[in-house]
Amino acid sequence: MRTNPERRTALTDAAVDVLADEGARGLTFRAVDTRAQVPAGTTSNYFRTRDELLVAVGAHVFTRLAPDPATVHSALSHRRDHALLGQFLRDIVDRATADQAAHLALLELRLESTRKPALAATFTATMVDALRANVAFHLDAGLPGDEESVELLYATTTGLIIEHLTLPEFFSRARVDRLIARLVSTME
Amino acid sequence: MRTNPERRTALTDAAVDVLADEGARGLTFRAVDTRAQVPAGTTSNYFRTRDELLVAVGAHVFTRLAPDPATVHSALSHRRDHALLGQFLRDIVDRATADQAAHLALLELRLESTRKPALAATFTATMVDALRANVAFHLDAGLPGDEESVELLYATTTGLIIEHLTLPEFFSRARVDRLIARLVSTME
Fold first, then answer.
1. Which residue of B has its CA nearest to A103?
2. Does A159 contact chain B (CB < 8 Å)?
3. Is residue B105 within 8 Å of residue B20, measured between CB atoms?
């Protein structure tokens, strides 16, 4: 196995693009080599199996979609009220829209998880950790709402992003923002 | 083009199974012929193009996931309150869980829509009609909430079903039902 971290990241980024453009079935070592413009066989030097590549993509898309810590830190200097909560949710949608390939790859991984129990297990662990971190952040920051509210915000944001990214003429960004405001207003 | 409606439906059902099991890239006329256990070439006698088949699947999954009109009619004899609204939403999740292949096919069609503008246009029209019908049903029945509430319920249900179907260990049915109850309680 090769271990150059930059090369490994570049291959994982290429795998994200292949998943978004071609779907899970299009994800082969050869397709990733081509997309990354590296010699044939390179991807198989970095990932033992296709499943190992899928798991790496699952971890990597979270990094790509994560907020800039400095932005979050600066936002927390504002009043931790409904307006700030709405802004955080719109920021999540902004990042998914700006990096559509990462979010579509995430959806492909979800679907692939229904077919591959080993991927489902790893991916479930990643999602459990991510939601737990969300809940901890929300409660620590003293934003409006309890643990269950955060779960509801999470599930609704999943739905809104999927509607907006896959059928933007159906769920416009204006509609997404309106529904975020509506949901946030119910948080106590 | 052949026009035996039962055969056409059987082929569309087979296409749903292929989409759910193999993903969009796996959907070929040949794969549908095999899944439907019909002679090679049958599917191409019923659908001119793969896009025409995708559009037929898009319409058909809505039929498969639709509620039984008699059940809805009988439910409407109860008080049209928050409890009944919660029941309707849990029924939607029940149907998606009972016919997982139909809902996963819907997700594959969403992803395929990001790659095929013609499919996106038809599929958007179907979704707009379906949401409009939902809103009309909700308001006519006098269930709690206004038009925007229905849109919020719809988006959240999308998120909950996708979480539950693709990562059931992450979003258990109990968690889904808890979040439905929480959201419904905010409807005025």
1. B111
2. yes
3. yes
